[in-house]
Amino acid sequence: MKNLLIILALLAGLFACDNTPTTEVEGGEATSAPHEEGDENRVELTKAQYETAGIATGLVTERSLSGTVVANGVIDTPPQNLVSISAPYGGFVRSTDLLQGKRVRKGQVVATIENPDLIKMQQDYLETASQLEYAELELARQTELSRENVNARKVLQQATADAKTQKARLAGLKGRLQIAGISPKSFADGNLVTRFPVVSPISGSVTVVNVNLGMYVNPTDVMFEIVDTEHLHVEISVFEDDVPKIKIGQTIRFTLSNDPAKQHLAKVYLINQKINEDRTVRIHGHLDHDDHGMLPNNFVRAVIETGASPVPALPEEAIVDFEGRPYIFVRADSADNRTFEMVEVARGVTENGYAQVTLPKDFDRSREVVMKGAYALLSKLKNSEEEGEGH
After folding, report:
1. Does residue 211 share a domain with residue 86?
2. Please, which residues have CB within 8 angstroms of residue 75's CB and are 6 or more apart in sequence?
3. Cys bridge to 53: 69, 214, 231, 376, which one at CB 3.0-4.6 A?
4. Mean pLDDT, rounded, of the chain
5. How many DSSP H helices and E strands does the chain contain?
């Protein structure tokens, strides 16, 4: 790097002393060449400048470089890891101690609801259980009489139907009570309850609390939202033109918006088969390692490694940065072949001394590109602009 700076300094001095383009005439003497005003991207060298700069040219070639796709996305949770908790039956909230950010365990009671209608449900259960007991005794009696040909077959059929009906009704009432977390054993002695617990179906963190003590809730009301952040994934939006490059199993490197210095890894797991209205496709990635520092909806900037593929490429030294943009120099049509034009390009992945370039659509691939000496031409171009401003 130090040697390059020294060479550029020497070239700048040479160009400053001999800034006026010259052409050779018969007899070997140099005369001033006319300068084209307004052509800010062209640079013309004298023979001495050309030889000192060590210009070497070549053509843009195809090289196999590791391709990448740059995209944005968010950290997301699987549907099974995000739950909205509601009460199975309406009622008044009598207890809850949840706050946003609090951790809960699977099966933990998160609230207690009071509903007087529970008394009627338990009463119906006890009455039905008693009726079923009677129906089963009657069925047994009619079955015995039927064996002795004492009663009519119709009576036995009716007893069988009554027993089945009571059994089905009891099972239905038991199921309704179990939905509320009430076991028939808890009121078998006649001590009916008016409150039932609401439990968390997963372990995770509370993100939403919509209730307070004394509030009436309906079965359709969302009381709490809980998210399990143990198994997050990354959702990336890729433009439709880049989708053919994406394959299952490719590596995703991404950073979080709130921690850009730390890089995370994931793998492409699913590719959506639908193009969204903004002409993007969702890519679902699984993290290589769970990170408890991530939060759902964290914004991410991702790079998907698409593997080696032939792309237009040039040596790194052929690409110069000018005012924050990448450029190359191409040989312009001239009698002495010492005139060059600066062309803006887009720079891609860099590997083994070569960089991917995206050329202008109308670029002629047969034009010679400066492979060596591009920074010398840039120095000459800058020097010419400064001289022009001085005049």
Report:
1. yes
2. 232, 233, 234, 235, 256, 294, 295, 296, 297, 298, 300
3. 376
4. 86
5. 5, 24
